[in-house]
Amino acid sequence: MPGPLDNLVLDSTRRHFLSRMTMGLGAMALGGLGQQAAASIPNWITSPGFAPRAKRIIYLFQSGGPSQLDLFDYKPVLERQNGMELPDSVRRGQRLTGMSGNQSTLPLAGSLFKFKQHGNCGAWVSDLLPHTARIVDELCFIRSMHTEAINHDPAITFFQTGSQVAGRPSMGSWISYGLGSVNRDLPAFIVLVTANKGGQPLYSRLWGSGFLDSRYQGVQLRAEADPVLYLTNPEGISPHVRRGMLDGLKDLNELQYESELDPVIQSRIAQYELAYRMQMSVPDATDLSDEPDEVFELYGDDARKPGTYAANCLLARRLAERDVRFIQLYHQGWDQHDNLPGAIRTQAAETDQASAALVLDLKRRGMLDDTLVIWGGEFGRTNYSQGKLTATNYGRDHHPRCFTMWMAGGGVKPGFTYGSTDEYGYNVASNPVHVHDLQATMLHQFGIDHEQLTHHHMGRDFRLTDVHGSVVHDLLS
Predict the structure, then answer these.
(1) pLDDT computed for residue 234 by the predictor
(2) Are 221 and 283 in contact, with CB atoms under 8 Å apart?
(3) b/e sequence 107-120, b meaning 16+ C-beta within 10 Å
(4) Is the model's pLDDT at 17 over the cut of 80?
(5) pLDDT of 389-416, one tens digit each?
(6) Given a cut of 50, is residue 151 above it in pLDDT?
(7) For all residues of the chain together, what is the average pLDDT?
(8) Environment class of residue 304 by beta-carbon count within 10 Å: exposed (0-12), middle (13-18) or buried (19+)?
(9) What is the pLDDT of residues 53-65, one digit of tens each?
(10) Which residue of 140, 174, 336, 342 is surrounded by the most CB atoms within 10 Å?
(11) What is the rounded distance in angstroms from the CA atom of residue 32 to the CA atom of residue 408?
């Protein structure tokens, strides 16, 4: 007759076996969440013959769709033909949103802002972004980005998870799953959202782990007194008492695991332990009081105000110094269907200096070479005016056909512009870059083959880039 131990072994599935080997496939590759990550990337996800160039990512997501035509993509023809009808030969019958699709006219809208070429690379930047203009020789511009989604929620979800349908793991979760954590006292994936901003709503599923283990989801740090809810011990509970409680809880969970072999139980144990360590590491990381005045001057006055975009950029640098792998910033408010000239001035003023300061700060600390910084939104804006066009005012509708993003550091070419749009700024003219291409390239810079970083779910293997996407090698130095 087999004994209890024999039955336990017989009942173990392959999933149980892997889960017991330090909590799952992603953790198995690097020795488990909360442990010091291995120096090399596991063989099962590596890109052949390519060493990692990036150790971490800071993604500055500009939610709402910044107008590339008023920031980066200079189109003199729109100025010359301002008010004229969008030619059918340019539109080519492409779909419009319901917000402007019923307009009787689609008048071309030239930008009200002045453009100049900057730096040795000669990149075009409007006068809305004077700080960004001064660092163009550090930036790699992609002017030929395009996406499939035409509305905000599916478009943002597509960028963050590789699918327009909610429920897939986010980019940070995929990287956390594949590479684990370097700093055992902080999560591998941390999210910062500009406080008190209107605009398109943001949902926690955008940094969720989807069908991956919940250990890989992003942890949002708040601007309030406690950056993470319930991280501070309740009144009357000392660290010693907390430690004793967690030890007892761990013993109970381990007993349950021996009985059920459910990997979720081990995830629960790991998260309790990480939360305990975060009681010390998070306050240290989020306390900006030890930053010198010259740092605040670099990032701007807003950096002294918790929850602002500038403060979050500075905090992102501190998290990068502490080896957080994926740091996601969200800044809302770029959805300018009307009153674009006034609204975009506000957005640019809130983000320009701090975005440039982050790149400069990383460079002077010797961190830019292995930190990939990404700036961009979910789509671009139309070259025609949504609503009435006047001499001083216009709006722009959603435009997925072409838009601009920039990257810096992490092994991408500095002072480089890739791709172009047609003279009307309506279609990609050369070197198109799809959302999945960008994601594949991002993973490649970590040394990851995007086709190999997969998870078996509901009968098939899923990946961040779904079933297509190619590394854009021309972007890489």
Answers:
(1) 83
(2) no
(3) bbbbbbbebeebbe
(4) no
(5) 999 999 999 999 999 999 999 999 999 9
(6) yes
(7) 89
(8) middle
(9) 999 999 999 999 9
(10) 174
(11) 30
Alpha carbon distance 371, 381 (integer Å): 29
How many angstroms from the chain centroid is the CA of residue 208? 12
Residue 407 is encoded by which pair of tokens?
Answer: 């990257």
Residue type, 221: L
Q: How far apart are CA 182 and CA 136, in angstroms?
A: 31
Which contacts of 92-100 are long-range, i.e. CB under 8 A and separated by 24 or more positions? 92/427, 94/401, 95/150, 96/397, 97/150, 97/151, 97/397, 97/398, 99/337, 99/386, 99/397, 99/398, 100/382, 100/384, 100/386, 100/387, 100/397
CA 155 to chain centroid, in Å, comes to: 13
Using only C-alpha atoms, what is the Rg of the chain? 24
Lowest model confidence (mean pLDDT) among 7-21, 161-175, 180-194, 452-466: 7-21
In the chain, the percentage of residues whose pLDDT exceeds 70 is: 90
Closest CA to 414 of 119, 130, 129: 119
